[in-house]
Amino acid sequence: MKLSSSAAVFAGLAFACLVSMTVAEQSDMNERHLMAGPAYDCGQQDFPQNDHMSPQAVSACIDSLTEEPMDKKTASAEVKTPDKVVYCSMDCKQNLTLQECQACLQTAKLLRENYCPRAVSASSVIGICSLMHETTGTFT
Length: 140
Description:
This is Gnk2-homologous domain-containing protein. By secondary structure, the chain is α+β, with helices and mostly antiparallel strands. 53% of the residues lie in helices and 16% in strands. The protein has five helices and four strands.
């Protein structure tokens, strides 16, 4: 049985995201004070997992989230585009301060072009702040 190239790519992305999540969970257990961060869900609602979100939809979603008041440790937004509804949410872990949550969300806005289009194909939830720690050292 042969996989089509797009199916193979999707399977690879799904596996990579699963590995990333497992590694992030282990890192979070071992270095909670360094690696803990909110999860940013660039996932989709009511349409196929391999239906990619456009960069414009990702941008609108994150812009909506950054406009949410950060008096709570959660934020969510629903963005309607001509052909789909995108639901995205951020849930900060308990050991982050509100300032750290807000900083993480603002950084997610900067990462949207590179991060979200890849993550959404596997409909994954990955810790943005863990990624930030590795790439920018923000939460050292």
